[in-house]
Amino acid sequence: MRRHRRTITTALAAVATVVLLAGCGGEPAAGDHAGHEGVDMGGSSAGGAGHPAAPACPPVPQLAAPPERVVTMDGGAAAILTELGQRERIVGTAAPDFFTAFTGAERSELDSIPVLDTGQGNTESVVAAKPDLVVGISSYSFGGFDGTPSVERLQQAGAASLVACDDTPSPVQNIDDTYTFVQQAATVFGAQAQGTQLVDRIKAQVTAATPAPGTAPVRVLALSSAPQTGQPLMTQGGSGLANGILTLAGGTNIAADQDSDFASLSAEQVAALDPQAIVVITGFSPQSDAELTAAIRSSPALASTTAVRENRLVTVPQSITLSPSVLNGQAVATIAKGIHGTG
Predict the structure, then answer these.
(1) CATH code, residues 218-340
(2) CA distances (Å), 171 to each of 164, 245, 327, in order?
């Protein structure tokens, strides 16, 4: 089993941009996520493509009673706990940009959560909130980025840590890690019934979106920035949750053979593999979704691909595609519709 980090989103993209120029996340996103001095860029088998190594994923905490004061290191974790009926226990969150994929009453409820840090979460603000549990969808949020609290520091402050870990063998073919994390969180809070309901709901969304048996898979390239001249294309590898979502949507990730969350492909490799569709992962670039999609569509490096010639590009938010989310089923549905031309 692989118990390593779940890829953090905007912050990791900013690091990749600095190091690789045309990093996986493209340009640094607007806001407070850019700039992570001191991050180890030695890479890891989990991160891949020059991305930083990550802290080890801690075991699921065994608490004598449900926690009373909870801090979430990202809006994705806050949304999961809210769906489990634990909103009132959340005393603060970091990375509220994860809320942008939500609408209506769900968004209003999430927006009511106090924001401790608009960035990835700094130690001082997290500890000052006096949590007895800190929850996040990535172990990068627990000491992996400069300024974030380590599991050990949180223990010293009297707080346990609950983190979504990558346990599915590569290449990932599903979103079982999402279901596992939801069930783990539900158990910690004594909300097993709500956990089962949430898992069943996401599974139903996935089942409804999955192409019918016999549907030919579509070769897919996932990009969060437009290719840069003379630089490799940074994309999603086979070991991340995104590969599972692409697979469930009826796609075949052309970089799935790279055993890492992130991967790089030369322009020549991309031309030879000829993706039939491009999944544009939004939320990293300061460009609007339309601007980013147009920049990718007009890239000379992609001009010969079937995806560009047939104008088969679909956009999906990073916050519901790269990490466990209550909206992972929506990501599957959006991609399936876009790459198969249905609906």
Answers:
(1) 3.40.50.1980
(2) 18, 12, 22
Q: Evaluate the CA torsion angle 136, 141, 144, 150 in order and state its sign.
A: negative
Instruction: Indicate the domain borders of the chain.
Output: 218-340
Which of 299, 318, 207, 286 has the alpha carbon at shortest distance from 27? 286
pLDDT at residue 152 greater than cutoff 90: yes
Q: Where do the H-state alpha helices sit in the chain?
A: 10-20, 75-83, 104-111, 123-128, 151-156, 176-188, 192-209, 241-248, 267-273, 289-297, 306-309, 328-340
Q: What is the DSSP string of 69-108?
A: SEEESSHHHHHHHHHTT-GGGEEEEE-GGGGGG--HHHHH
Residue 146's pLDDT is 86
Which helix (H) or strand (E) segment holds residue 34: the answer is none
* pLDDT range class, residue 294, cuts 50, 70, 90: very high
Query: Quick check: 343 pLDDT over 50?
Result: no
The closest of 57, 55, 15, 22 to 38, measured between CA atoms, is 15
Per-residue tokens: 191: 């909300």
Q: How far apart are CA 17 and CA 27, in angstroms?
A: 6
Please, what sign has the CA dihedral across residues 177, 178, 183, 188? positive
Hey, CA dihedral for 235, 184, 98, 102, is it positive or negative?
Answer: positive
Per-residue buried b or exposed e for 88-119, using 16+ beta carbons within 10 Å of the residue's own CB = ebbbbbbbbbbbebbeeebeebbeebeebbeb
Residue 64 has pLDDT above 70, yes or no: yes
Calculate the CA dihedral of residues 341, 99, 199, 163 and round it to 10 degrees.
120
Phi first, then psi, for residue 29 (nearest 5°) are -70, 155
pTM, whole model, 2 decimals?
Answer: 0.87
Quickly state the pLDDT bin for 223 (edges 50, 70, 90): very high
Q: Cβ neighbours of residue 201 under 8 Å, at least 6 residues apart?
A: 329
* Bond from prior residue into 149 cis (ω within 30 degrees of 0): no
Per DSSP, 227 falls in state -
